[in-house]
Amino acid sequence: MAHLPKGNIQIILHNLKGERWTVNAVAIAKGQHKTSHILSKGWMAFVRANGIKVGDVCIFELIDESELRVRSNEHMKLNSM
Hints:
Elements: E1 9-14, E2 20-29, E3 35-39, H1 43-49, E4 58-64, E5 67-72, H2 73-80
Parallel strand pairs: 1-5
Antiparallel strand pairs: 1-2, 2-3, 4-5
């Protein structure tokens, strides 16, 4: 998540239906100039509500400074039918 602000932040996740969840993203320093984020509080609610399972692939599309649209392979299977 290189384009997110450095430090702990709250992000908004959108599913393909336009529903939104607020999720905490905890910053982890990865060297002098790199920061990664771990999704924490709120992530499991998003996962459960969207039927994401272990092994699913999620694609995160940056739509604003701290907003992401999330697509999973489950949604891609449904759209290809």
